[in-house]
Amino acid sequence: MAIESPSLAPAGAVLRELFASGQTLRIMEAHCALSARIAEDAMVSTQTFDALWSSSLCESALLGAPDIELVSIKERVQNCITMQQASSLPIIFDGDTGGDLAHIPYNIRTLERGGVAAVVLEDKVGLKRNSLLGVEVPQFLADTAQFAEKLSAAKGAQRSDSMMLFARLEGLCLDQPMDDTLHRAGAYVAAGADGVLIHSRSRQPTEILTFVQAFRKDHPHVPIIVVPTTYGHVPHQELADVGVSGVIYANHMLRAAVKAMAQVAEQILIDGNTVGAEELCIDSRDLIAAFDLAPVARAKVEA
Ligand code: SPV
Ligand code: MG
Question: What is the pLDDT of residues 211-249, one digit of tens each?
Fold first, then answer.
């Protein structure tokens, strides 16, 4: 099989173009080369995924760590580089808080060198806990001006204009008022964010739809990303109609893998052989074929 020669479009430029198309992007979590390839290959009619999400929750879990920024950005970028060997989809990187203000320039340049298309930084301070834990654990919002300063520092540290920066708003997850969240969103965009990610842990989309409608009035073209893990029943088209630019399926590939692995391990113990387990597995030959003799064929963006 011939190896395609990779073109040199920077991943950030590819992603910007996708957002500019006006489509509501479908963004799938991937945590390794194989999962990135599976996400890219998924197709129903002509519908495919547009980008990948490098999730801090999933990458922490993979390494047996809690989701508290324990796994370094340097370590996670290595994983992104590996994913780019298997998939041409642009990667949106969950950068958590981005670290201290003083760490920002180093972290941003590491992400740029790793070929990441976009980084998302969230407006929390202190020990970062997963957003879905909300107010069940101590979590603290950053001061608006201080987080805006972090975003400006991040934009200022970029070597090129291509990588996108998203400001992630955590206020709704921490039961803060909608007005404050909207005010923050405006301040973060003014500070240089290329887009916003509005998160929610509500089981209903009401607060997300309210935010998107209100933010869209003043910012008709700024990309808005949502993460409907808890309100996953809402149809893609409903989110698109209100003005959402991208939908992240934040952890489903890893959660599916964990369930399947647990099932197959248990089946082997039940049966005392692998006959039942085989039914739960792909054929060994399909695994061999997945990457056989086509190591970098997919790369279409600069790595
Ligand atoms: C992640 O996938 O790591 C996220 C999304 O940050 S959430 O887990 O919903 O906070
Ligand atoms: Mg995360």
Answer: 999 999 999 999 999 999 999 999 999 999 999 999 999
pLDDT classification of 42: cutoffs 50, 70, 90: very high
The answer to whether the CB of 296 falls within 8 A of the CB of 5 is: no
Centre a 10 Å sphere on the Cβ of residue 220 and count the other Cβ atoms it contains: 8
Give, as one character, the DSSP assignment of residue 109. H
**Per-residue model confidence as pLDDT tens digits over 130-143:** 999 999 999 999 99
The answer to whether the Cα torsion of 90, 57, 236, 122 is positive or negative is negative
Cα end-to-end distance, the chain, whole Å? 22
**Rounded to the nearest whole angstrom, what is the distance from the C-alpha of residue 271 to the centroid of ligand 2?**
38
Question: Tokens 């200022």 correspond to what residue?
Answer: 156
Tokens of 224: 């808005």
Q: Is 167 helix (H, G, I), strand (E, B) or coil?
A: strand
CA 147 / ligand 2 centre spacing (Å): 17
| pLDDT band per the 50, 70, 90 thresholds, residue 7 | low
DSSP code for 131: G
What average pLDDT does the segment 80-102 reach?
97
154-203 tens-digit pLDDT: 999 999 999 999 999 999 999 999 999 999 999 999 999 999 999 999 99
Q: Whose CA is nearest to atom 10 of ligand 1?
A: 131
Ligand nearest the Cα of residue 250 is: 1
Which residues contact ligand 1 via a Cβ below 6 A?
55-57, 94, 130-132, 227, 229, 250-251
DSSP annotation of 142? P
CB 228 within 8 A of CB 247: yes
Give the integer Cα–Cα distance in Å for 231 and 208: 10
d(CA 172, ligand 1 centre) in Å: 14
